Amino acid sequence: PMPSPLETVKAALNAYVAKDRAAIEAIVAENYTFTSPLDNAIDRATYFARCWPNSEGISGFQFIHLVELGHIVFVTYEGTRQGGGRFRNTEVVTTRGGRITEVEVYFGWSIPHPSPEGGFTNV
């Protein structure tokens, strides 16, 4: 049976934690694009060259929000880095046929937040 969009996204993030390149290559479609504050619709090959090496620094994800809406999944997670440190991101993931075709990632903040509760940081 075909995995749901939610199962597909979870499997992709779990591949990051497991450092399982074969697993994520099976999930990421040939026509994949990845967009972030640093990347503008990069293709699959560029994604694997530029982003996949980040898997070495990831030790886990805790899902905060996970919403499936048709073939799109909205996921907010807190990631844990190898050696400590955490961060929060939100992704909008488009799936088709059990594979991921597009990701938009929005970087969040480090945890603990650098600003005091109820306060802000001047940039």
3D structure, described in words:
The chain is of the alpha+beta class. Helix content is 23%, strand content 46%. The chain is built from three helices and six strands. A six-stranded mixed beta sheet has the order 2-1-6-5-4-3. α1 (5-18) packs antiparallel against α2 (21-27). The protein is globular and about 45 Å long. The mean pLDDT is 95.
Chain-wise SSE layout:
Elements: H1 5-18, H2 21-27, E1 28-35, E2 42-43, H3 44-50, E3 58-69, E4 72-81, E5 86-96, E6 99-111
Parallel strand pairs: 1-6
Antiparallel strand pairs: 1-2, 3-4, 4-5, 5-6
Q: Report the radius of gyration as a whole number of Å.
A: 15 Å
- H/E element order: HHEEHEEEE
Query: What is the strand tally?
Result: 6
Stretches with pLDDT under 50, minimum 5 residues? none
Mean pLDDT: 95
User: What gap, in angstroms, lies between the N and C termini?
Assistant: 50 Å
Overall helicity: 10-25%
Instruction: Please report the number of helical segments.
Output: 3
Into which percentage range does the β-strand content fall? Answer: over 45%
What does the main sheet amount to?
A: 6 strands, mixed
Side-by-side strand order of the widest sheet = 2-1-6-5-4-3
Q: What global shape is seen?
A: globular
Judged by helices, strands and strand pairing, the structural class is alpha+beta
